[in-house]
Amino acid sequence: MTLTSPNPVDIAAIERELTQLWKEAAEPGTTNHAVTRALTLNLVAVAPDSFSANRMTEVVMGLTRTHPNRTILVTANPAGPESRMEAWVQANCQLVAPGAPQVCGEQVSIEASGASVAQVPSLVLSLLVPELPVVLWWPGHSPFESPLFQRAQSLVDRVIVDSADFAHPERDLRRMAELNQSSTYVMSDLNWARLTLWRELVAQFFDSRGLLPHLFRLDKVVIDYERDPRQPANRAQALLLAGWLASRLGWTPLDNSVSLEGDLVRIHMRRPAPTVGPQAMRLVTIELHPAPVVEDSMDSLAAVRLSATDGVQASFVVERTDDPACARTKADLAGMTPIARIVRATQREETDLLATELRLLSRDRTFDETLRMAGVFARGM
Amino acid sequence: MTDTAILDNPLRAGLRLGRAPEPCTMVIFGATGDLTSRKLVPALYNLAREHRLPAGFSVVGFARRDWSDDYFRQELLDGINANSRSGAADPALWESFAQGISYHRSDFTNPEGYASLAERLNQIDEQRGTGGNRVFYLATPPDSYHDIIQNLGTHGLNHAPGNGWTRIIVEKPFGHDLESARALNQQLLSVFSEDQIYRIDHYLGKETVQNILVFRFGNGIFEPIWSRRYVDHVQITVAESIGVEDRGGYYDHSGATRDMIQNHLMQLLSLVAMEPPVAYDANAVRDEKVKVMRAIQPIAPEQLDNCTVRGQYTAGSVAGKPVQGYHSEKGVTPDSHTETYVALKLAIESWRWAGVPFYLRTGKCLPRRVSEIAVQFKAAPLMLFANGPTSDIEANALSIKIQPDEGITLKFNSKVPGQASQIRPVTMDFRYGTSFGVASPEAYERLLLDCLVGDGTLFTRRDEVETSWALLTPLLQAWQAGQGQPPQPYEAGTWGPHAADELLARDGRAWRRL
Ligand SMILES: NC(=O)c1ccc[n+]([C@@H]2O[C@H](COP(=O)([O-])OP(=O)(O)OC[C@H]3O[C@@H](n4cnc5c(N)ncnc54)[C@H](OP(=O)(O)O)[C@@H]3O)[C@@H](O)[C@H]2O)c1
Predict the structure, then answer these.
(1) Which site among A2, A14, B296, B420 is 20 to 30 Å from B490 CA-CA?
(2) Which residues of B fall within a CB distance of 8 Å from A248?
């Protein structure tokens, strides 16, 4: 049902409509299954266009299973010629198991264009379910530049963006790092969630007591990132991975640490001293290398190689295989049989990434430190 | 809980997969058996699939049959394809995982087999970076435990070389009575220390069982009513629909009390009834479990018929299929007195539980496979509503379902909408599958991972096993001596003998209909 009203949209009508919706859903005979209305959060989703709005509705539906919520999906076109605002409601229901009650969340969609866009924040505010956290999910190329974003910031507990979509990755990464330091809300990036498996596989090398000392001897890191020649480069994910390693291992960037040669990026850093003495200070180089794009791969990274070249040679590699659903890990230490294996590395659905971020309630300190470092790298580019 | 590698590895901070074990080798004794291919290896494979196992993780299968490495791997792969919750194995993943699997042929009694095992393990440490870390899994008939433990000791396999760790997992049954359980503990402890020993009770690996503690101590509203003041009684049911199948010979020497009560039901009882632990760590939790088990009043011989009921199934049908009686099962002596059903009424002598009976029942060939714990609250003290006597209004019940669907249900009374004030019980349901949208891992996955990271919270400590046997052994002896009513026949596919209903009816209560 669509409520199109000349201006302003009638809030009371929307709430009435929602109540009616639940009543119908609960009526015997409408469905074969009982319906459970469950709300765990307010999700304010901002779609860059109506095509994305449809895709995002799908994602939200999938989310109902784990995080039933009230979604307020906003599609705003401030450049639109006429000042217009429309809103309608729907229930998002998921059958979780045969015979079990359906779990339902609810969605209010708002489409605004022209001058009416300015009214969106106040409309959203009046539609929030009280006492539930407010999460702003803003995929798309330039969230931080939008005036709507600036207004919305003050309403929310958490902002979720996706740096894989950024139009100006370096600029936006920098901006995201700044906002994350100054804001009261928690910032999340779905691109960081995509890195979880890479981080897990890299970390696993060093769960072995015998290999752990080599972690502190690393002096070179090479990250292969996908580079589509038809589009501007997006190295956000590679920068996050680099930022993670550097911040975990206490590496500090040198002055003018970043150099670019075409698509090849070099970052020069200093590593803390494992020992005191003449050998104490060591340099580390992180390189980002372009690699061809692979369809259906899980994300935009192709490999990460860590090595210690000074003294005992050691190298640790995680790389994609010809099968895009698999990755290979290999630890190679001079004088030892190399240890290699194949692991599953499947693409994660957006719903799953979003659910992972929503599960974490507080700030992710590791992400904060990573982002700060990635912001420093981005500033040099 | 302590794993230094994780504490020291700075890359672990904030990783959501959480705990990760160090590279290690698991030696499975009895690797050609049913448990290995049906449960253990599918669980290990799923852990590997979910990136929970380190590269280099290795498995050595130890058994008597003349199998090659390749044949062994193929058997395990078939086992995964038939039994894994994630379906058939992914060829590339399996191939990589299988590289760490080998077969070691020997009899458990042959010392040379252990000498060559030690060599093999050292080789694996070198080739696969397992750093001297070992887990020995006793997936064998219990009469082999003695030989294996002794040989591990004489060959120095109880301590790993270098700074590696060594752990040993012991399957059920853990002893046959108090004396044999003590003897097994003594033998284990003459070779290993208690913190190396992991006595498995797979019930503790189940998600809802772990949730009992979270539910009780993570919510403010339940603990205050969790006592004699509000609770009328507690029922614990573990019902199996299957009979003894091909384990008749084994079962006939065991029976429901040894096979189920001593371990699984006593574990459930202690989790529901224990006091809050001072911390959620292995010893604090187990201290409280032991304490509450110690507070259970032993059943005196003259109380046998008041507090216990045994049963034995006769021919009948379960879920539409005809079933033969226990006495006709293969391996069972025709005049056997072994109980296939048992119901107990236990009293816990503590401030919290004095006067609150705990009714336990378990049996084979019951109508359905279902396990649950139900806390039955007292009825409202006063009938306020004019729709009949108090007894018509059901008391509140909280049930924690463990099998087949894991979940928690609260039953309470509500007004039927309309002018008249009619009251009807309604339920509030929480199901694991629905609320989290993820499949719970198999119990063995959880427990194997816990052991690999060195967390013993969900394993049974020495004093727990012995306390439980100390309580039940006098009962078993009295029955053995012919005291009390013999096992009462019940038709397969029914909820046990009538005497079990009377056990509760005498107290003005009834078993829940499940
Ligand atoms: N199966 C289950 O679902 C299950 C569930 C819970 C607990 N358990 C417990 O787990 C343990 C194992 O059960 P299971 O069903 O796997 O037993 P099983 O199928 O009978 O297997 C016994 C294993 O032990 C080996 N074995 C026996 N004597 C040996 C000897 N002298 N030397 C070398 N190997 C010997 C056998 O090897 P060969 O055949 O090659 O000689 C076989 O691999 C038991 O304690 C059981 O109570 C089993």
Answers:
(1) B296
(2) 10-11, 13
User: Chain A partners of B5 at a C-beta cutoff of 8 Å?
Assistant: 206-209, 212
A357: nearest CA partner in chain B: B16
H helices present in B336-439, as ranges: 432-436
Ligand 1 atom index nearest CA of B38: 3
ipTM > 0.85? yes
Asked whether B59 and B26 are in contact (CB, 8 A), the reply is yes
CB-based contact B408:B400 (threshold 8 Å): yes
Distance, CA of A119 to CA of A111 (rounded, Å): 11
Residue recorded with tokens 């573990």: B238
DSSP symbol at B160: -
Residues in chain A with CB shorter than 8 Å from the CB of B97 are: 341
Cis peptide before B367 (omega within 30 of 0): no
Burial label for A36, CB within 10 Å (0-12, 13-18, 19+), is middle
Instruction: Give the chain B residue nearest A36 (alpha carbons).
Output: B429
- Per cent of chain A over pLDDT 70 is 89
| Per-position DSSP letters for B64-105, written without gaps between them | SS---HHHHHHHHHHHHHHH-TT-SPPHHHHHHHHTTEEEEE
CA B256 – ligand 1 centroid, Å: 20
Considering CB atoms only, which of A203, A207, A336 is closest to B22?
A207
Our answer on whether the CB atom of B246 is closer than 6 Å to any ligand 1 atom is no
User: What kind and span of H or E run contains B8?
Assistant: helix B4-8
Instruction: State CA B74 to chain mean position distance.
Output: 29
| Residue-wise pLDDT tens digits, A287-308 | 999 999 988 787 899 999 999 9
Phi, psi angle pair for A324, to nearest 5°: -65, -15
Residues of B marked as catalytic: 264
Q: Are A283 and A219 in contact (CB under 8 A)?
A: yes
Helical residues (DSSP H) of A27-99, grouped into ranges: 50-63
- CA–CA distances in Å: residue B68 to residues A66, B112, B277, B491: 46, 18, 49, 47
**Number of C-beta neighbours around residue B50 at 10 A:** 16
Residues of B in contact with A337 (CB under 8 A): 126-128
Write out the two tokens for A221.
Answer: 């890191």
Cα-to-centroid distance, B33 and ligand 1 (Å): 5
> What is the CA angle B163-B167-B171, rounded to 5?
175
Closest residue CA from atom 10 of ligand 1? B139
Beta strands in B277-320, from DSSP E residues, in sequence order: 308-314, 316-318
Q: B16 CA to chain A: closest CA distance, Å? A: 8
Using the Cβ of B311 and the Cβ atoms of chain A, whether some distance falls under 8 Å is answered with no
**Nearest CB neighbour to A342, from listed B10, B93, B128:** B93
- State how far Cα A337 lies from the chain centre: 38
- In whole angstroms, what is the distance from residue A367 CA to residue A5 CA? 43
Q: Is B96 on the interface with A (CB under 8 A)?
A: yes
B56 to chain A, any CB pair closer than 8 A? The answer is yes
Interface of B with A in 119-158 (CB under 8 A): 126-129, 131
Lowest mean pLDDT segment, chosen from B134-138, B210-214, B305-309: B210-214
> Do A92 and A62 touch, CB atoms closer than 8 A?
no
Q: What gap in Å lies between CA B125 and CA B116, rounded to an integer? A: 14
Closest to B169 in 3D by CA, of B264, B35, B57: B35
Burial status of residue B216 (CB atoms within 10 A of its CB: 0-12, 13-18, 19 or more): middle
pLDDT, one tens digit per residue, over A197-237 is: 999 999 999 998 889 999 999 999 999 999 999 988 999 99
Over residues B250-278, the mean pLDDT reads: 96
Q: Closest approach of chain B CAs to the CA of A8, in angstroms?
A: 38
